[in-house]
Amino acid sequence: xxxxxxxxLPDVASDLWxxxxxxxxxxxxxxxxxxxxxxxxxxxxxxxxxxxHAAVCAVLVEGMCRDPDTFMLDLVLWPQTVALVADYLAxxxxxPQIVARFLGLILVPFWxxxxxxxxxxxxxxxxxxxxxxLVRSERxxxxxxxxxIRRTVMxxxxxxxxxxxxxxxxxxxLALSRLGPSPGGDAVDAVLLRALLCRAAELVQVSxxxxxxxxxxxxxxxxxxxxxxxxxxGSGEGLRAILEAHLLPRAPAQESVPASxxxxxxxxxxxxxxxxxAHATVKLDIHTVPLDPTDxxxxxxxxxxxxxxxxxxxxxRGLQGAKGARSVGLLAHAxxxxxxxxxxxxxxxxxxxxxxxxxxxxxxxxxxxxxxLFGASLxxxxxxxxxxHFQLLSALQCWWxxxxxxxxxxxxxxxxxxxxxxxxxxxxxxxxxxxxDGQDWITTKGHEEVVQALPAAFLEHxxxxxxxxxxxxxxxxxxxxxxxxxxxxxxxxxxALRTRGQSH
Length: 504
Description:
Layout: H1 10-20, H2 33-45, H3 53-65, H4 68-75, H5 81-92, H6 96-113, H7 115-121, H8 124-136, H9 143-160, H10 166-179, H11 188-206, H12 217-230, H13 237-247, H14 271-283, H15 300-311, H16 321-341, H17 356-377, H18 386-402, H19 410-421, H20 432-436, E1 441-443, H21 445-452, H22 456-459, E2 462-468, E3 471-477, H23 483-491, E4 500-502
Antiparallel strand pairs: 1-4, 2-3
């Protein structure tokens, strides 16, 4: 009944769960069988407002993990059970340890022992569900277990990429970007991301005459986020075609198709997807590429700007809370970086925009969007999350350099100052320690070799891992005669050869 759309009331879910837990031992849940467990979780999850999901997760994992070998025999007949349970746990488990226990004792051994039934039963949303659970386990899973999940997902994706539809393709791309590289650092992820990007471009080409773009806003956001995480853009042409199909108004192929149905899909209400797309466009360095080859000013950010301006309205329901703050931070960082790249240094004939007038037009569009985002940030809890605070400060820095610093219009300077003061701290600029908090680190052995290979005259003034907001710099050569170089020389300090450096 629930699968046919009937609402499930919380009281009904409570009665059902009470009947199931009337078993004397948790492991008797296996009497439901794989399909029965899936049906149970589907019904419970359909009960909106039900408050007992965390307890279900604890009982379910305890029952399955107390005798995993016996339970796995039942799963062979319904292999997708483990993926659906992983999805439920990722959404509702109270602690990451519960998720990690299920993955380590049930899902990973089952996938390793029965690879063929598993790959035959998996669907794109199962792949995405398992990647959600892996993220939710907060790295408590062993590297060996994580690698089994990674290999299974990649094997399935390689065999099925050519048949993926837009929704499944976006989900699989996001799953792959979450899994990361193997311990050996192989490049199979890039190969798969290339195949997924080619498939996405193919879907766009097939639907060229369709009034509706193939990807929904959330699917496009997922795809762009995945490519940005994987740092893959290919030649750039495939991404340009995808963005053109979804961001620019589409000319009707038939007179019977109303022009209103051919508009770009990212509306002001799609704030998060606007942010993901803008951020990925800049991170993948395709923000200078015209989406329409006949219009040099038709960049992706220029196409997004009208929706961004409307989304900054105080009446926009998506512009609130921590989620809204994260979106504003991403958007501000994207428009700030694009403004700096297309600033006065690039303002010459043949640069982005084709002419100096086109260049100035893009600068005005980006700056206006950035100012509106700064204004919107003042209504949001941006100072509660360091990453958002960092993004806004980076955007301010980009704007300051691109707009001529103190020569910028007074109104913009006042707004920028309000954003800077909104942190409520004596020194709003983060220092080295705060900027390094929560970051991933990689070895700097290669950087040490570079420093050690420098001539003696340069080596005397070389420093490794120096912080200058917003960047950690791998190797810094202070000019001879600078205050820092003089202090270092006077104190007899050697280059700071540290054992770890920040990933960036």
